[in-house]
Design brief:
The complex is a heterodimer.
Chain A lengths: L1 H36 L5 H5 L15 H28 L7 H16 L2 H15 L5 H25 L3 H9 L4 H30 L2 H4 L19 H9 L4 H32 L6
Helix pairs in contact in A: 1-11, 3-6, 3-8, 3-10, 4-6, 5-6, 6-8, 7-8, 8-11, 10-11
Chain B lengths: L3 E10 L2 E11 L4 E5 L6 H8 L9 E9 L2 E2 L7 H7 E4 L10 H11 L4 H12 L11 H13 L3 H4 L12 H13 L5 E5 L7 H14 L4 E5 L3 H7 L2 E6 L2 E7 H6 L4 H7 L5
Parallel strand pairs in B: 3-8, 3-9, 6-7, 7-8
Antiparallel strand pairs in B: 1-2, 1-4, 4-5, 9-10
The chains are: A mainly alpha, B alpha/beta.
Chain lengths: ~280, ~270
């Protein structure tokens, strides 16, 4: 009995320790970013584009990177949703045999694990072939490729948890597969779909390597999708690499902005997801 | 000729035979109860009637399921029209992920019923000419009300029709499921242990609804509760290990069974 009680205590302690470790890591990231970045985070930092000498510590801001990152991530999220939802539903057993679905999922898992620099290199090769230069469009396309596996796999997992009985009820009323999918399964899966989009968005907006060659970098806000575009991860990367302390501070401020954007999107998706789940039976 | 009739029906999942050579006519406008021990093929038999079995992989069906004289396992059979004829209640009542109102309107909307058709349906149901309010969706409002009344749920939900159906109690959800199934204008109601997730009072309400609905609908209920079978059955089908052991009017099967296994089951020796 004593041994079992000790075992219980040890495992409880282990869980608590792991939880604390995770919280410390998160707190550490936030504290360091705020501590180093907050002093540099001024209004002009948020609303101005870099002026001459910005990278030497003079006037200007990172509005180009904020706008750029939002355009890239929102554009890629939008494209990914359009492709991911049909794929995720198509992987259901009503539409695809388990053999084929299993193979597709394996491919997606490999893509999920592929380093983003590989996406960047791939995108770059394709763009060179078509004679495109680094642009917002190129960045969106590569980010879409990067986000798709994440979205599809997360959505598919959610859709698979939907009880067969619910679908049976719908089919029993004489609905077709697509009617059941759109009117019942989609609604039931909506909160999970929102979460899947958030997950992919977070990965997309934070990625630097894939857009390094494909979206480029510029001090200006793009006027069309064929213009190069700046992004927050690259802004962090370029600024932290300089020897000038003021500019390094600005790198942390840029990171802080990135964190805040992800936080906002998480909160919004939480609210949406909660709103969508009121109709759902568990 | 009865609406539903089975001829030499055998069903297997892969190599596992679940039903063997079942031949029976299900009497119209009565409550037919399928009884038998767990795993004897009751649910499989029920789901073969509206081809819900198709959702399972690797199902082999031989023999005929005749609905209004049409073999449903014929390759040309219109499965959607067939399922429309067969209302279905599942063991656990899942509301569709929408409001109470939309749950009832779902079927008529999916089947793209015209306004006139809906008015016709209400008149048929109520047996009189119903005055339809001229506001938008007036006929659907009346339809929803009619079916919620028919399922004995109207008084409890009339003030919150547009709230999520998931907030209803589980007993109310099963009556909602009944109303939703009836709104598609089926000829028969297939119920798979419809009270097994319900409290006794809600279960009693469902049984009461079945008894009043049988004057217009053929009802087939799967149950493993013998006392429930005795309370509601007009006709009984007893399955044992995939075999149709005995079928006949309820009094005959319960009071004077001809097979030893039936006697053992209804007397409670085996369960």
């Amino acid at each position: 009995m004593r041994a079992r009680r000790i075992e219980e205590t040890i495992f409880k302690g282990l869980m608590l320790a792991s939880l604390v470790l995770v919280l410390i890591m998160l707190a550490g990231i936030i504290v360091i970013t705020v501590y180093k970045g907050a002093p540099a985070l001024t209004l002009s930092m948020l609303v101005e584009t870099p002026k001459g000498g910005y990278y030497l510590g003079k006037e200007g801001g990172i509005a180009n990177a904020i706008v750029g990152s939002l355009l890239l991530a929102l554009g890629a999220s939008f494209c990914s949703i359009l492709i991911a939802i049909p794929v995720a539903f198509g992987l259901q057993k009503e539409y695809t045999s388990w053999r084929y679905a299993g193979f597709t999922k394996l491919v997606l898992d490999v893509l999920w694990g592929t380093p983003s620099i590989v996406y960047g290199a791939f995108g770059f090769v394709v763009m060179v072939y078509f004679g495109l230069r680094a642009s917002l469009l190129g960045g969106i396309i590569v980010l879409t490729l990067l986000m798709l596996p994440i979205m599809v796999r997360s959505m598919e997992e959610i859709i698979r948890t939907i009880p067969l009985e619910l679908k049976e009820i719908s089919y029993a009323m004489g609905t077709t597969k697509i009617e059941t999918t759109l009117a019942v399964v989609l609604r039931q899966a909506l909160p999970g779909i929102v979460t899947a989009v958030l997950l992919a968005f977070g990965r997309g907006i934070g990625d630097a390597a894939s857009i390094l060659f494909t979206a480029g970098y510029t001090d200006f806000i793009p006027r069309s999708i064929f213009d190069p575009v700046a992004s927050l991860p690259l802004a962090v990367f370029f600024q932290i690499g300089t020897p000038i302390p003021e500019v390094q501070e600005r790198a942390y401020a840029s990171a802080l902005v990135l964190l805040l954007i992800v936080l906002c999107v998480s909160l919004i998706s939480r609210i949406l997801s909660h709103r969508f789940s009121k109709n759902i039976v568990r | 000729m009865p609406h539903i009739s089975l001829k030499n029906l055998s069903i297997a999942y892969g190599h596992h035979r679940v039903l063997q050579d079942v031949t029976v006519n299900i009497p119209d406008k009565q409550i037919t109860v399928i009884i038998g021990p767990s795993g004897c093929g009751k649910t499989t038999l029920l789901k073969s009637l509206n081809r819900l079995l198709d959702l399972n992989e690797d199902v082999k069906v031989t023999g005929d399921v005749l609905i209004d004289g049409v073999n449903t396992y014929d390759g040309n059979a219109d499965i959607l029209a067939l399922r429309k004829k067969m209302g279905f209640l599942s063991q656990r009542p899942y509301p569709l992920p929408m409001s109470i109102y939309e749950n009832i309107a779902f079927g008529p909307k999916v089947h793209r019923m015209s306004k006139d058709r809906i008015v016709q349906q209400i008149n048929d149901l109520e047996g009189r000419m119903v005055q339809v309010p001229s506001k938008k969706n007036g006929q659907m409002d009346i339809l929803v009300e009619s079916y919620l009344r028919l399922a004995g749920l109207w008084e409890e939900v009339k003030d919150r029709l547009h709230t999520p159906a998931s907030r209803l109690s589980i007993g109310q959800q099963q009556r909602l499921a009944l109303a939703r199934a009836l709104a598609v204008e089926p000829e028969a109601i297939l119920a798979d242990e419809p009270t097994s997730a319900l409290d006794p009072l809600s279960a009693q309400l469902i049984e009461k609804q079945f008894k009043s609905l049988k004057k217009n609908y053929t009802i087939v209920v799967v149950t493993h509760i013998l006392r429930q079978a005795r309370r509601i059955a007009d006709y009984v089908i007893f399955l044992y290990l995939g075999e149709l052991v005995e079928h006949g009017p309820a009094e005959k099967v319960f009071d004077n069974p001809s097979d030893e296994r039936t006697r053992a089951y209804v007397s409670g020796e085996i369960s």
